[in-house]
Amino acid sequence: MDDKAGSQAPGDARAVEELIAEQRRRIHKYVGLWEQQARRPGRGGAPEQEAAGMPPCEAGELFDAMPVPGLLIEPVLAADGTLDFLYVGQNAACRRYAAAVAPEWESWSQPWPGRVRLFDLFPSMENSGVPRLLADAYRTGRPQGPVSGEWFVHAPDGPVVRISNEVRAARCGGHPHLLLTWERGHRETLARAAQRMAQVCWAEWNLSDSAVLGSYGMQQVLGLAPVAPVPGLPDLAAMTDPGDRGTLYKVLTDVILRGRGAECELTLTRVPARIVRFSAEPVRLQDGPVWGVRGVIMDITRGRRSRERAQHAEQDAHSERERTRGLTDVAVTLRDAVVPRFANELAPLGLDTAAVYCPDPEAAGVGGDWFKARVLPSGRALLAIGDARGHGLEAVTLMAKLRYALAGLAYTDEPVEKLTAWLNHVACDDGQESTATAIVARFHPAASLLRWVCAGHPRPVLVRGGSARLLPYPPGGPGLPLGVVPGETYIATETTLSPGDVVLMYTDGLVERRGSDLDTDMARLLRVAERLARGGIAPGHDGLERYGQAVAQDMAGAHQTDDATLLLVRRLRVPAAPPGGPEH
Fold it and tell me: DSSP string spanning 517-569?
């Protein structure tokens, strides 16, 4: 077989036309050779005695030879012009059909039961489209149908069987009888519905004369007008995006020149553009050239667009995960920088201190917990803990601002209520979403006095003599969180510490649980702190830290939903020579 392609470039739509023209020439050449062989001596027509024709067959034998079920109907025309129909008989295919769907129906078991009124035998058929079909076939003399025909049969003491078919009617040549035939199950209707739902069609392109046979719905699949003719292969190439024409040409070359099936995906230049999968195979005569191309076209636009959207969504999600991971890394680095590992530098003032940090177990992002514990130039100690709203870089940034602002403002030696008001000003200037809670305290060693302010934060816990209790709020209750109302005034309260007393300052992540009551959570903290303090808390920074870790672990369990920070302060002794005077 000649395997040469045309002279046009594969991406040119005219290349398909040239490919088909070449194959048409091959077909004509094959037909000419076949005709020459047919005219050789000894290869003429049928013998003269066979050409005389077949002997006539009986009508019943012809009827039984039909491959589809059929009823022979005799029309009866009344004097008033109305038509009635008599059932005369049925063919072998009808009897097989009856045995399959209604074996109890004895009237179908005999091929020629005698004339019976059709609608007496099948009463429900009279309400279907069959009477009109038979009448039109009788009056026009032309075949009618198919139409949807539904009726039922009910054998005595048997089930009711629904019959659903595509029905046709035609006159029996010059005879007065009518032939009623059907195909079981609306196959054509079902096939069309399947093609419509699957967005698939088929076509067969004849390469010898450019004839095209296309299936139902081909125009819909290709995005053409309903009345548009079925496109030929050159038309299909012209409809294809120029970038895909080379692919179509390769597929047609494989089918036409190499005689093998092939498939590809094509973008059709319609508004909107659609993507189809084109699968093709050769149609050939035995030992002859490829005579036609049989193809199936499926609209895969929706699936392709869905995959593209899913891929874009996955890419966006991946990018967001990478961005979040990057922000988390920055936030962790920043947090480690601004909240370093705790150093017990308050021992000269008679305080043991320790800090415990428990990150969010759900990895929702680094939180805004912070604390501060340092000696001031006045000889007093600054103690503070806070929680900036939210998670991630924004929370860590606000936490850093507040922590560093407090570290600098504390050097003014102003009272803690003034320091807290200044912090509120810093948070308010940072924006509407920049809110935080805090406990700001100053410890005066000579008086063993802790003065502290609450800005919307959980109250500290005092562990004394084996029991634990919440420290009372300042007069008037806790102040508002930082960053809520500019110019907010805060009030301090005082707590005198005895040797051995331990104060627990903590963020809400230690106690709050989703769906739980806050009072219940606080009561649980008191029970845990008290139980773990029985028998005493080990001395030194390490002993205090182990106690704090035990409290945090007991409180967290499997229900922690936020960062948790715990700052512990233990009173050791009263300095003999205080470096600073009493605080206001």
Answer: -HHHHHHHHHHHHHHHHTT-PPSHHHHHHHHHHHHHHHHHTT---S-EEEEEE
Rounded to 5°, angle at Cα 424 from 375 and 364: 90
Residue 451's Cβ-count burial label (10 Å; 0-12, 13-18, 19+) is: buried
If pLDDT is split at 50, 70 and 90, which confidence band does 373 have?
A: very high
Q: What stretches of 115-260 show up as alpha helix (H) in DSSP?
A: 118-121, 130-140, 187-198, 218-222, 233-239, 242-256
Pairing between strand 502-506 and 564-571? antiparallel
CA-CA distances (angstroms) from residue 225 to 219, 222, 310, 479, 567? Answer: 6, 9, 31, 74, 77
CA angle 562, 566, 571 (to 5 degrees): 170
Largest CA distance in the chain: 144
pTM, two decimals, is 0.48
The pLDDT assigned to 142 comes to 92
φ, ψ (nearest 5 deg) of residue 259: 65, 35
pLDDT of 162: 63
Tell me the two tokens of residue 260: 């093998």
Centre a 10 Å sphere on the Cβ of residue 143 and count the other Cβ atoms it contains: 15
Peptide bond before residue 472 is cis, with ω within 30 degrees of 0: no
275: its two tokens: 């993507």
Left (φ > 0), alpha (ψ -120 to 50) or beta: where does 27 sit? alpha
Q: Is residue 547 scored above 90 in pLDDT? A: yes
